[in-house]
Amino acid sequence: YYTNTVKMMKTIFALLALFASASAFVPSQTGSVVKTALSASTQPEALKTLSTIAAGAVPAIFTSSAALATEGTNEWFGVDDIRVLAVLFIGHYFILSLWLGQYGNATEDDDADFFGEIDYTGR
Length: 123
What we know:
Layout: H1 2-23, H2 37-40, H3 45-64, H4 82-103
């Protein structure tokens, strides 16, 4: 008796899951619903512009402040000796200059023959 009940519950659950997934593809029923939240509000144009600027600026401010995280040392990047910080940046700029010296003038046209055969003639 117990196995039949469990089997029946699994079948009903599968049927309900099928109905739920099928209802995801049904077009939404729109009545007097506003399309976007901005069109629903009656804000002046200047306030809408200000809120748009704030929405773009706030994430940039928060993500850039992660570079200034002190990690308990009260110094940028968690480095408490300025010489270590200088070596850190100089090393990165040295590797960047090596890369730019090799691939700095590369364009997308240089990648056109990437999937072709290897040219061993050296031209």
